[in-house]
Amino acid sequence: MFSQDDKNNDSLTIIIKDARIDKLNKTYKSSYKLKGYRIQIYSGNKKQPANQARSTFMRVYREKKAHLNYEQPYYKVKVGGFRTKLEALKFKNELIKHFPDCFIIKNEIDIK
User: Fold this and answer.
1) What is d(CA 86, CA 58) in angstroms, rounded to the nearest whole number?
2) Which of 6, 11, 78, 108 is an S-S bond match for 38, by CB 3.0 to 4.6 Å?
3) What is the predicted pLDDT for the residue at 69?
4) What is the Cα gyration radius of the chain?
5) CATH number, domain at 59?
6) In the sheet where 33-44 sits, what is the strand order?
7) Is 28 strand, coil or helix?
8) Counted domains in the chain
9) pLDDT of 4-39, one tens digit each?
10) Is residue 20, in this structure, part of any structural domain at all?
């Protein structure tokens, strides 16, 4: 970063952006997990209903992520990524109308 002052005491800042720093930042974000909360909207031993619950959620809440995991012998669909339980609780109260059996779980979440 370079700066140069002119007569009017205004400053000019030039930022040189290196693509390697962006790549390093992206790698860091993808590998680091934060302790937080998700909402589990489905758990069962059949894959088709799990996929159906996930697609229903994604159709209604396009801005949130839905994760389908297999934890033997159950398929689980977990949604969102909240840093606090209060944030998760607010979203859970909205989800109840579509997924009445949903509940909050502690989970590792992604950094935004």
Assistant:
1) 22
2) 78
3) 95
4) 21
5) 3.30.70.1070
6) 66-71, 74-82, 33-44, 103-110
7) helix
8) 1
9) 544 555 678 888 888 888 887 777 666 667 899 999
10) no
**Alpha-carbon distance values, 87 to 18, 42, 63, 81 (Å):** 36, 20, 15, 9
Q: Is residue 98 part of a domain?
A: yes
For residue 19, what are the β-bridge partners? none
Cα dihedral 91/94/100/101 (nearest 10): 0
Residue entry with tokens 């950094």? 111
Written as six digits, the tokens of 100 are 């009445």
Half-sphere exposure of 104 (CA within 13 A, CB side): 17
- Rounded Cα distance between 1 and 19, Å, is 15
Residue 79 domain flag? yes
Q: Which of 22, 24, 28, 54 is nearest to 39 (CA)?
A: 54
Give 74-106 pLDDT, tens digit per residue.
999 999 999 999 999 999 999 999 999 999 999
7 lies in some domain: no
